[in-house]
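From the pipeline queue, job 12 of 40. The input is one protein chain; the requested action is below.

Action: predict structure.
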Amino acid sequence: MVVSVKNDTRLTSSQSFLCSGFAGFFSKTVTSPLEVVKIKRQVGTFHGKGGFLQTFMVIYQNEGLRGFWKGNMVSCLRLFPYTAVHLTTYKKIVHLHMDELGFISQWRAILAGGLAGVAAALLTYPLEVAETRLIVQNCRQRTYIGAAHTISKIYRNEGLPALYRGFSLTVLGAVPFSVGCYAVYMNLDKLWQEPSFRFTPLQNFINGCIAVGVAQTLSYPFETVKRKMQAQSSRLPHFGGVDVHFSGTMDCFMQIVRNKGVLSLWNGLTANMIKIVPYFGLLFTCCEMCKQVCLYRNGYIVSPLSYQPTPGVDQSLGPYELEEVRRYWKNRNFGSRESSFGNRW
């Protein structure tokens, strides 16, 4: 199976980046309560001792509504550098493996996405650590205030390695994640009983949700261990609220299985699965709305509320090329009017 990797050339690079960033910001903010529940369940704080619904109730009773948006600003700030590095790295890797027609095999495209994700995570990992610490801290005994304060305090008290604690699990987790995506996409034609080039936008959205759901389930134990490693610190009350104490990555896996059972590696998976559909639905919808506004500003469509092309506009031209064409015709028309005016006199 091969895929064609094509971007909308009617948008500038900055417009594509802003559309992705704003869509991610909005979808993350709306689904933040599910993310907070998931992380508290993964780390094992007292909020997450019960089930999915009970965790919601405990957070609300102890921290109020604001507790569901702890760490959200850090998470949203992380989006912009993460998106920029991810898109840049992905494009470079994909272009290296494209054939002369612009096609790339499915597994190579997924591998490129995995490698790009690792590169982006490396740059932004300290912000992810800060997000975890802000979410799991007790709001009545606050240790951290904001992203900059959190990162600087961790660096001063625990050193630079603490800001990258658990990063190896991001790399390891990318393997089952990529395998899960590949397995789903290789069997989509069997699921729908038709070839992939006939899939509707709704089918592609469902396909994406299924692929992410399977991939995240396979890689979830790595994320659970990673979150515990990010949260644990001997300098914090109750070791950061982690439900098991450990000395390293393998010891963390062993302590979880020994003290909590194998299934506890998937604590918080319910919140994660529920989050997938609204998150990607809002991400896609918001991105498309931003894209329409940009296409309208660039002159390709007649209204930001529809995709109806502007009459007489070549949709294959890039935004800068289209601007040059407009400038040319504007100058030509202006010159024609001046010539006509001169002939009268």
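Job complete. The CA atoms of residues 41 and 50 lie 9 Å apart.
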